[in-house]
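Folding Task

Wanted — backbone structure
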Amino acid sequence: MNASYKTAIQFKDLYIPVKMLKTSHNSSIELNQLCKDSKERVRYIKFCPSCNKEIHNEDIVKGYKYAEDKYVILEQYDIESITSNKDRTLSIKYFCKSKEISDLLIDKSYYLIPEMESEIEYELLRKAMTTNRVVGMAEIVLGTKQELVALFANKNCIIATILFYENEINELPIIMKHKTDKQQLENLKQDILDNTKEFDWESHYDKYQLKLRKLIFDKIPK
């Protein structure tokens, strides 16, 4: 598995080079868009209306729109000029308890895999964090965005979880609360208890994808 990013965990005198690998992948069947007549795959081109021509990647620059049809152009060296090696490092600012991090804040996660010759320091940090039952809070610049990262340690590895910032969480719409019937509530609570069991991860899978896969393969000429 190729690394999504290469970085390092830093805390005081510890400097641990690591690779960030995605913890999950999309296993859904990919459906391509085709021309109805020719059955050829539709090709999307990057087109400049002013030049009236197709634009290739080497002809494209990034810009920020600050007024109608007016942009500030940012070259790659502009972005690199404000990005230091420290920005690209998982520098742990402090530690906290995992219960303090709401599930609402979780975006996506990466396995942190130690590079060669950094395994001992990695294991030292993992053991210390699991013993103290803490989560390391860090920040890192990925692309052109500084991410808030929670480092969770378990018995196997350290996982970097990207968190949303407070201002990225949408406000909860107003939900009107109503009085409920006491007996109905007790009955529902008992029904829930009767249907409560240990989470069985292996029993859950995408049944619809299986039906879609069968539909597709049945249509393939034999």
In short: Residues 119-132 form the longest helix (14 residues). The radius of gyration is 25 Å. Residues 90 and 184 are 51 Å apart (CA to CA).
